[in-house]
Amino acid sequence: MFGRIDHIGVAVEDLDAALELYRDRLDMREQHRETVEEFGVEAVLLELGDGHVELLRPLSDDTGVGRFIERHGPGFHHVAYGIDDIDDALEAARTAGLRLLDEEPRRGIRGSRVAFLHPKSTGGVLTELVEAAH
Ligand code: CO
């Protein structure tokens, strides 16, 4: 079902402070920055080999990431697996009895198609499936 780890998502309150850590002190290259309206976040992708660290700053408290920070504080938010075909992967997840947060793919960063699995069915880890734009 899963091809590879595409990125890990980290919820942050302050993007500049997070970049000071990840880019300046941990020496990861800033590759892409985008406001993703679909999820109500400003996101920065940092390059790390074939994968990324995705920093997510909520645009308001009334977003998934905003509510996450309210409950848990900033920190690790989700793991994203890269897959070739998200429609097939969603069908496989459904067949495996996993609970889907997204019945249909949504538009993610950089024109990707993404869908989330409920952490209750993935051992407490919010899990994203991502099919890169072709
Ligand atoms: Co993500």
In short:
Helix content is 22%, strand content 39%. It has 134 residues and is α+β, with helices and mostly antiparallel strands.
Characterization of the model:
With 134 residues, this protein is α+β, with helices and mostly antiparallel strands. The chain has one domain: 2,3-Dihydroxybiphenyl 1,2-Dioxygenase, domain 1, CATH 3.10.180.10. An 8-stranded mixed beta sheet has the order 2-3-4-1-5-8-7-6. A hairpin with a 2-residue loop joins strand 3 and strand 4. The model has no long low-confidence stretch (mean pLDDT 96). It binds cobalt (II) ion (CO). Cobalt (II) ion binds next to strand 1 and strand 5.
Number of strands: 8
Share of residues in helices: 10-25%
Order of helices and strands: EHEEEHEHEEE
Tally of contiguous helical segments: 3
* CATH superfamily placement: 2,3-Dihydroxybiphenyl 1,2-Dioxygenase, domain 1
Structural class: alpha+beta
Strand fraction equals 35-45%
Strand order in the sheet with the most strands: 2-3-4-1-5-8-7-6
User: How many strands, what sense, and barrel or not for the largest sheet?
Assistant: 8 strands, mixed
CATH architecture: Roll
> In the residues, how many domains can be counted?
1
Please give the CATH class: Alpha Beta
Head-to-tail CA distance between termini: 19 Å
Q: What's the rounded overall pLDDT mean?
A: 96
Low-pLDDT windows of residues = none
The Rg value, from CA coordinates, equals 14 Å
Ligands (ions, cofactors included): cobalt (II) ion
Shape: globular
CATH-assigned fold name: 2,3-Dihydroxybiphenyl 1,2-Dioxygenase, domain 1
